[in-house]
Amino acid sequence: MIEPIIAAQAAGLDRLLAQTADPPVSELVAAFAGPLFDEMPSDAEGGARTSRLIVTIFGDPAEEMRNWTGPAEDTVRERYLAAFGRALPGLSPQELRFRMRGILAVVAVDRVEVYSQPTPGCVTPVAGEAARRWAITFLTAAMSAPPTA
Length: 149
Known about the structure:
This protein has seven helices and no strands. It has helices at 3-19, 25-38, 44-59, 63-66, 70-87, 93-115, 129-144.
């Protein structure tokens, strides 16, 4: 379930780097986060299952769960870290990794909510292109924030 997302992230970064060695933060965020919207199964059951799996991978303390995504995900993540590092040279490697985990967490939690039944009295979450645009705008601002003192 995760492989199409990782493949799309890798392809997006390849496209950006073919254009310039130093893509802007907004384009890096779109290439990294976009597949979490675009490559999710479109049916509610498949989308919910994939979203919950991503949240579980990041939230489960068991090493076998954290390592479940395998070397392809590690390679893509390291390539993005290098690209974001060039675009955001003031961030420490630790803070950069934290912010990238934040991208995944924000999108995965949003997708879980979209694919779950809304609680009575809550506004129905937005799916589709609007949510994708909002997330990329929000996450670009978060990634571009000044380094934490």
